[in-house]
Each structure stands twice: as structure tokens, then as C-alpha cells.
Amino acid sequence: MADHVRGGGKRSPPGPPVQVGTYTDAFRRVDGAWLIASRTLHLAFGGPTPKAG
């Protein structure tokens, strides 16, 4: 879930989710630390995302 603040500190009005999805991440180890090597976003419902006015 995301809560967006527009310029001037005004919050975008609440509404239903416009995109629902999951990430599939691939990791690799670099100098003993696990880093994200790639990330793929899978959207359950395609379509345009409305923009705040």
C-alpha cells in the first residue's frame, strides 16, 4: 500500500488500489552481502495508472 503526498504537502485522495501485483527477485552474493540482481514485477490486472490532479 502506498500513501502519496503531492507538492504543497497535500495528500492524494484515498481510492481503491489501481495496481495489484507481486515481485520476483533474483539475488546474488557480493563480498558477503546479498544484493538484488534483478526484479520482475508481475501485475495481476493490466491497465493505466491514474495520475493525481
What sort of overall outline do the alpha carbons produce when their principal axes are compared?
A: flat
Number of strands: 2
Helix content: under 10%
- How many helices? The count is 0
Compute the average pLDDT: 78
**Rg, Cα atoms, Å:** 16 Å
> H/E element string?
EE
Written account of the structure:
The protein is mainly β and 53 residues long. It has no helices and two strands. It has strands at residues 21-30, 33-43. A two-stranded antiparallel ribbon has the order 1-2. The protein is flat and about 45 Å long. The chain starts with 20 loop residues before the first strand and ends in a 10-residue tail after the last strand.
Record keyword descriptors for this entry:
53 residues, mainly beta, two-stranded antiparallel ribbon, 2 strands, 0% helix, 40% strand
Short description:
This protein is an all-beta fold.
Topology:
Elements (H helix, E strand, L loop, with lengths): L20 E10 L2 E11 L10
Antiparallel strand pairs: 1-2
